[in-house]
Amino acid sequence: MNPIIVLNNIHKCYPLYHHITGGFRNFLFHMPTAVKQLQNTKFWALQGISFEVNRGETFGVIGRNGAGKSTLLGLIARVMKPTSGTIAINAGKIAPLLELGAGFHVDLTGRENIVLNGMLLGMAKKEITSKLGEIIEFSELHEFIDQPLRIYSSGMLARLGFSVAVHIEPDLLLVDEILAVGDIEFQKKCIDRMLEFKKKNVSIVIVSHSMQDVEKMCDRAAWIENHKVRMIGDAKTVVAAYKGARE
Ligand SMILES: Nc1ncnc2c1ncn2[C@@H]1O[C@H](COP(=O)(O)OP(=O)(O)OP(=O)(O)O)[C@@H](O)[C@H]1O
Ligand SMILES: [Mg+2]
Q: What tens digit of pLDDT does each residue of 181-232 get?
């Protein structure tokens, strides 16, 4: 197998923001111990994650709120760096659908954002112009496409993001829980498009709380618990274990 993503012993640490307890005067009095204490308040969102995603595979990431799933996807999308460990991505074009509206500008219209986002994701201006009609049609945003993004609902933002991402013809599609805010018809359309991608050997990583979607689409899945991999394997087996643990 030829992996498209190789994660090797990934750790991610976030600084934590703390109140200065005991008052500022006390803080000054106990310097530099107090400063050291502040610096030591770190939070390890990922603790030793290692796995591979194969080319052409649809891979699910599941786990409870705060487990570290979005952090993991952000690292794969290269929007941030791991504190330690290595990540190798063997993909040309990555389409990251991370949080809602990421990479978009609220003062620009939907149409303008398609152009901006397409270019940020590595499309040539000509390519975007030729696909603009198709992207708008897929989004079904109709007349709202010429309205500024600030008036968009979360479902409308998801529609715009998904429409751009699937039209850049990526090698790797990263989807973080974005389907959840779309209506049933749009969800179905997105899932159908992802199944089409699957047939074309595009690799997909999906973070989802919908076990049904994960079972339906994913070949394998990783269950992240307490910032570590609790289980990894065939999607159905991992989903069953995850559900079992919560009963
Ligand atoms: N920028 C940040 N600074 C500090 N801590 C953060 C930051 N981003 C995330 N965290 C913390 O890291 C942990 C993992 O967060 P993450 O967003 O990856 O969880 P998640 O598995 O995606 O959860 P959810 O299912 O709720 O989306 C959480 O405890 C969160 O509070
Ligand atoms: Mg998340």
A: 889 999 999 999 999 999 999 999 999 999 999 999 999 999 999 999 999 9
Residue 101 near residue 162 (C-beta atoms within 8 A): no
| Residue 66 binned pLDDT confidence (cut-offs 50, 70, 90) | very high
Is the Cβ atom of 45 under 6 angstroms away from ligand 1? yes
118 lines ligand 1 (CB under 6 A): no
Instruction: Judge if the beta carbon of residue 66 lies within 6 A of ligand 1.
Output: yes
In one letter, which amino acid is 194? M
Binding site membership of 14 for ligand 1 (Cβ less than 6 Å): yes
Ligand nearest to the CA of residue 15, numbered in listed order? 1
Return the residue whose CA atom lies nearest to atom 1 of ligand 1: 14
Q: Which residue ranges form the domains of the chain, and what is each CATH number?
A: 59-80+92-246 (3.40.50.300)
- The residue-averaged pLDDT of 42-68 equals 96
CA–CA dist 19, 21 (Å, integer):
6
In this predicted structure, what is the pLDDT of residue 17? 66
**Nearest residue by C-alpha to atom 3 in ligand 1:** 14
Q: What is the pTM of this model?
A: 0.89
Does the structure show a pLDDT above 90 at 10? yes
